[in-house]
Amino acid sequence: MSIPEPIAAQQAERPGILPGDDSGEAPIFDVWTDLDAVAVWARANGRDGLKPFLLPVTDEMPDRVRQAAERLNAYTMGGLFSHDPMPDDDVDWRPESDAGERMEPMSLAQSVEHAVNLLDEREFEVLARRVMLEQPETVEEVAERCSISREKVRRIEKSVRLRLQAVLETYRVEEKLEALFDGRVPFMTTVQACVRMPELGERLEGLSTPLHRLIRNVCGTPFEVRDGWVASPTLMFARQAFLETLRGEADGHGVVSPKTLDGYDILTDSGVPTGTVARWLAYCGVVVVRGHAIVCAQLRDVIEAILFVEGRPMTSAEIAALLSDDDTAAVETDLRADPRLVGVGGGRWTLRG
């Protein structure tokens, strides 16, 4: 992945900020303390509908809260928001240039890009290579590329991550991620995920990268987006964990009934199963016959389960057609070696007894 040019080469002047030294460390004010001070005041004064970074600075704020709001606005958002007083509810506060519409709050992607806009070139380089790549470079690789020490890279990365985490926190991204995966299954389609958490579908246009990549690499809730699926913590882990769950639900033949599968499915708003589990099983290469999932680990057991579900004699070619690898020769070998099965003529096999 080529690294795009920084959105802004030099860090903008930010009034009201106590800057750190040139070691790459964050400014010495505590972002979390400021966020807490502003959020507590907003809730106590009926302003909890606004996010801390979107809260205009007003004269009614105590000095400590006003200073915290100014630092947050100036530092993370580049002083983007107006310091005009909060309008009264009965006053038309819409701008003259667009009196027909209220000003829309910034999206998460826009807020992140404004935060990135404040990084200097070295900070941006570390962000791009340690956070924004699909496979981030190692600290050693970045240190060599930037001609700085590994400790310097770590300090810069920590500083940048703290700033981005502060932005994500105002949009409650961590809470939304936890809620996204609080169901019975740790996976869903990307369409379903974006409906439930639209931020996952946003893009950082200035960085030419999906926003979910930054969210994944900055937040504490791990997840993976690939092949039209979103899973936590990874697709491979979600596959293995769900198969183990289903094996606990299977009968003596390693078969899970359609009714049981429906109990794990993601439902529509009207309570109708979406078929997500069936699509997930197909994606994972699990054999599904007549709506029954076969979760056996060994090919021989899968063959026996297929014959059990079908309830009729079958040829090796018919059985192989239901398998992902369609290996008729391997099926034929296991059919002949399994004492639970018996040939009934015409190359067909069934369960013994």
UniProtKB/TrEMBL annotation:
Gene Ontology molecular function: any one: DNA-binding transcription factor activity
Which residue windows are transmembrane per the record?
none
Query: What InterPro entries does the annotation carry?
Result: RNA_pol_sigma70, RNA_pol_sigma70_r4, RNA_pol_sigma_r3/r4-like, WH-like_DNA-bd_sf
Pfam families tied to this protein: Sigma70_r4
Please state every residue range assigned to the domain named RNA polymerase sigma-70 region: 118-165
Could you tell me the Gene Ontology terms of the biological process aspect for this record? DNA-templated transcription initiation
Disordered: region residues: 1-22
- Protein name, entry field: RNA polymerase sigma-70 region 4 domain-containing protein
